[in-house]
Design a protein that fits this description.
Elements lengths: L7 H4 L18 H7 L2 E5 L2 H12 L1 H4 L10 H10 L6 H12 L3 H8 L3 E4 L2 E4 L9 E3 L2 E2 L4 H4 L1 H11 L1 H7 L1 H14 L2 H11 L6 E6 L8 E7 L2 E8 L10 H16 L1 H10 L1 H7 L3 H4 L13 H21 L4 H18 L4 H14 L9 H9 L2
Parallel strand pairs: 1-6, 6-8
Antiparallel strand pairs: 2-3, 4-5, 7-8
Helix pairs in contact: 3-7, 13-17, 13-18, 14-17, 15-20, 17-18, 17-19, 19-20
Length: 379
Amino acid sequence: MKRLFVLWILVFSISNLFGQDEFKKVNFDKKFKAKNQGVARIEIDEVKELIHIMIALTEIGLDNDDMVEQKGPYYQDVLAAFKQYKSEKIILVIDSLIKSNPLQYIFLTGNALSYNFKGNKLVKDRNYLFPAQSVSSHTKISVNPITTYKNQIEAFAVKTGFRKFYKRQKPFYKGLIAKYNELANLQEQWNWLEKNFESGVNNYTIMCSPLINGLNYTTSYESNGFKQIMMVLPPIDRSAEMSDKENEIFSTRIMFTEIDHNYVAKPTKAYQKEINIAFSERARWVDTSKEGTEYYPTPERVFDEYMTYAVFYLYCNEKFAADESSILFAYNGVNALMKDRGFPRMKELNDALLRIRKNNPTKKISELYPELIEWCKTQ
């Protein structure tokens, strides 16, 4: 399949993705907080899945296996049930929106959470009001697109029998959620990060879809003293080519490197001045011949991305302390992945951070930043 979706979408992952916005994004009331405090949940949301299916039917979605996961029986089930409706007016509208700006994918799928089905109608969610408003200071929206096209989306769902399809697929969805819990223990990762950084998160939520492929991101919401980290991720599965431990490490890396953006970003910001000096010679740290590196334009962004993966390697060193082969698998995987993405000094930074950590075992990782940054200045 053609890969028309811009490459940076494949690696885009940034804390607080939707930024500081004009309109209220969420309202975490007492009922929401009581239900979600201390909970790590994984969900395949009904309205969000409808939007993913509608995007999959667009011309750009059908021709793009980066934006839409096109492997596996679920995608074939979607095509069998819905492809005959690809010429519906609302599908053509969505196609036009995404072709005009690929970030519309985020605005459509992200704001799907602001509505729920009640019968055949979409009703506003009491907690997620307008969650996806901006991706950067230059890319913002002031009107929720789900609100704009609400009537057409409702009509499409009724005409296609979407709600019956979603209900039939629930056992499959439950199986995907079970695999997440089996292969990548979110609660364990959360506990480790809370212990090793100065931070406090009340809830983790993974919004998943079998149709998500390259676009994975994480964002945070705060309301009424309650902080939620939300990750948008594809399903994870067991590979027959890897051992059980290797499957666990690989699956954990996908999730962990979304979660820990929310922890490494704060100390990175605190040491921004020193990082600017240490990473002033960009060519030492970034292989600009690799597509996607242009979306890490500043020293702060570059260092933050290195740290995201280096902290994952520290986690593996502790979790698999008695299993050298598992640590080596994590180490080689991270180094190869980051080099391929255009971050060639991952191996050296991993080695430096691990050495500093072993010399300061009782310190939080955020307290190790000054020594690590000084090491970076010498490179």
